[in-house]
């Protein structure tokens, strides 16, 4: 059972999310919060597996709350709920440790699948969101020197991470095993001194093709 905390300043949004998700046999809504400060308190109290986090909220926004939760309870994963005009919030939340991004009107099945994927350790980006984040990221003309530490295969894997592919999709694309992909990802993170594959995606999106 995946324990989920709902965070949104609009009660009608929380009610809608609860209605969509409570019918899923493997998802348990353990609590709700209406701002980032309350989200941090509820997260520490309830210890959910995952938080569905709005970004624009009073008192403390979802970006700051994500950072605080990551610092105080790093095992709790955050899946951000967003709209298309939240580019800056999405980028900052990603940098603060959010593991995925969804539009608020995502169908219930896709929402449930995203929750399951993030719980397993994957990242998830809703349609069009990665492209917007990539376009908003500053481009660099010259590849940073640490990129040269990567093997040709690792560079291929990094490029596919930047396209939003998960390990299974990368394995299929490169005709290698998921275990090999996982090893490559770990090596990439180590060589580039990155925290997770979300940071790797940001790093890759900042490079010129």
Q: Would you give an account of this structure?
A:
This protein has a six-stranded parallel β-sheet with strand order 2-1-3-4-5-6, with helices on both faces. The protein has helices spanning 11-21, 36-46, 62-72, 87-95, 108-119, 129-136, 152-162, 167-174, 178-192, 197-205, and strands spanning 2-7, 27-33, 50-54, 77-82, 100-103, 124-125. Helix 3 (62-72) packs parallel to helix 4 and helix 7 (152-162) packs across helix 10. By secondary structure, the protein is of the alpha/beta class. It is built from ten helices and six strands.
For the record, give the distance between the C-alpha atoms at the N and C termini, rounded to a whole number.
42 Å
Biggest pleated-sheet summary: 6 strands, parallel
Would you count the extended β strands for me? 6
User: Uncertain segments of ≥5 residues (pLDDT<50)?
Assistant: 138-142
What number is the mean pLDDT?
84
Shape: globular
Rg is: 17 Å
Strand order of the largest sheet: 2-1-3-4-5-6
Strand-residue proportion: 5-15%
Please identify the structural class as seen in this structure.
Answer: alpha/beta
């Amino acid at each position: 059972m995946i324990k989920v905390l709902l965070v949104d300043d609009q009660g009608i949004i929380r009610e809608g999310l609860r209605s969509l998700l409570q019918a899923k046999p493997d998802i348990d809504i353990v609590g709700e919060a209406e701002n980032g400060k309350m989200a941090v308190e509820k997260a520490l109290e309830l210890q959910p597996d995952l938080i569905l986090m709005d970004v624009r909220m009073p008192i403390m926004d979802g970006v700051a709350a994500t950072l605080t939760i990551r610092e105080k309870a790093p095992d709790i994963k955050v899946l951000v709920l967003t709209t298309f005009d939240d580019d800056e919030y999405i980028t900052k939340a990603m940098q603060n440790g959010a593991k995925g991004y969804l539009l608020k009107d995502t169908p219930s099945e896709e929402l449930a699948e995203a929750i399951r994927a993030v719980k397993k350790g994957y990242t998830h980006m809703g349609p069009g969101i990665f492209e917007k984040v990539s376009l908003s990221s500053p481009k660099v003309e010259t590849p940073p020197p640490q990129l040269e530490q990567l093997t040709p295969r690792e560079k291929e894997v990094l490029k596919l991470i930047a396209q939003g592919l998960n390990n299974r999709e990368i394995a299929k694309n490169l005709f290698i095993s998921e275990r090999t992909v996982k090893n490559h990802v770990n090596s990439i993170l180590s060589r580039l001194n990155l925290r997770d594959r979300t940071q790797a995606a940001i790093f890759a999106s900042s490079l010129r093709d």
